[in-house]
Amino acid sequence: MCIFVRLSAINLKSRYESPNVEANMLTNRITRTKREKIIRLRDANLTHQAIASRVGCHRNTVSKVLKNEGLK
To answer: Coil, strand or helix: which one is 18?
Structure first.
């Protein structure tokens, strides 16, 4: 068990010290292109779940984007 803890700590340390961590964090944001695609797909009467799977985000994100745009 002690070996597992040490390996986990090493993996966590290397993950957070990676130079790509900052770049990976930026990918969590919805870009203007994705926002426009969400709106176009909603105009095509797709469900939030279908939009989310096509855009590559969570269905709650789709709801938030549409709410911010004044759409449901």
So the answer is: coil
